[in-house]
Amino acid sequence: MTNDTDTGSDAPLSWTIGDVTITSIIESETATSPRFLFKGVDKINVLERAKAAPWLAPHFVSDEGYLKQKIHCCVIEAGEHRIAVDTCIGNDKQRSNEGWHELQGPFLEDMTEAGFAPESITHVVCTHLHVDHVGWNTRLVDGEWVPTFPNAEYLFVQAEYDHWTNEEDLFGDPVFEDSVAPIAAAGLVNYVSPEHSICDEVSFQSTPGHTPGHVSVVVESDEQRAIITGDMAHTPLQLADPELSSMFDTDPDAARATRHEVFPGWADGKTLVIGTHFGTPTGGIMVVDGEGYKLEF
């Protein structure tokens, strides 16, 4: 297993798991107020948590107590498969969050420059169907939302898709209408179980609670393993304290139970855990740390 995060260049972060490569294509990387994610957790409390778990700073917690977060897509190269995991926010979308509204970012150009032209993607995986995980499913062409990855099979967990057909978006935005429904209308969706396998090296692990059909993505090759978390953990603070649930969790108690269930299996001292919203370096080997867990780089 190799970690190519310290390249000394502008090259994207990447990790090698046996014969598989995972590359991070970043849409945005920002400092986030903890109040955006957690009820009753302010910057002072974050600094207290970082003092108790020093590995959190400076990578994931700033000196002021902000959370260092990112929105990125992981592209998995496994044999002939090119699998894009979580497609960020997207351009031109009407969003109530001012920082996400009608973006005009270079994500697709960055993805292509990294060697992943949209036409080359074979699968698109959405760990769940929240706004910041489905946005680049589609792009605006002549006033219509069309699939960004025209040759890909889009994998939606059936329970997740069913939930959001009857539930309003977290912020009341037309996320399903502009980023999910057009994919179904184009006939590109494969509705799957939360234990689905794409190939020998890439499969899903059911991690519900944040949303009903939430999954994490498991990569295994040559007796090595990596996990892409999705939002079952928004920040490494939730590794240090698995009890901490986000205000955006559909079922906070179920999300908490999921962390307690899966973390012991991930914290074997060998598994690379890549956070879908963890700031750089984004991934590390997960190990037990007191009553919680930590990442080693």
Note poorly predicted spans: none
- Specify the biggest β-sheet: 8 strands, mixed
Total number of domains:
1
How many distinct beta strands?
16
DSSP helix count? 7
What's the N-to-C terminus distance?
Answer: 12 Å
CATH homology-level superfamily: Ribonuclease Z/Hydroxyacylglutathione hydrolase-like
Please indicate the percent range of residues in DSSP E strands (runs of 2 or more).
25-35%
Helix content: 10-25%
Rg (C-alpha, Å): 18 Å
Determine the mean pLDDT. 96
- CATH architecture label name: 4-Layer Sandwich
Helix and strand string, N-terminal first?
EEEHEEHEEEEHHHEEEEHHEEE
- Class by alpha and beta content: alpha+beta
Assign the CATH class. Alpha Beta
**CATH fold group:** Metallo-beta-lactamase, Chain A
Order of strands in the sheet with most strands: 1-2-3-4-5-6-9-10
The rough form would be described as globular
What does this structure look like?
The protein has seven helices and 16 strands. With 297 residues, it is an alpha+beta fold. The protein has a single domain, classed as Ribonuclease Z/Hydroxyacylglutathione hydrolase-like (Metallo-beta-lactamase, Chain A). The protein has an eight-stranded mixed β-sheet. Strands 11-12-13-14-15-16 form a six-stranded mixed β-sheet. It has a two-stranded antiparallel ribbon with strand order 7-8. A hairpin with an 8-residue loop joins strand 14 and strand 15. 48% of the residues are buried. The model has no long low-confidence stretch (mean pLDDT 96).
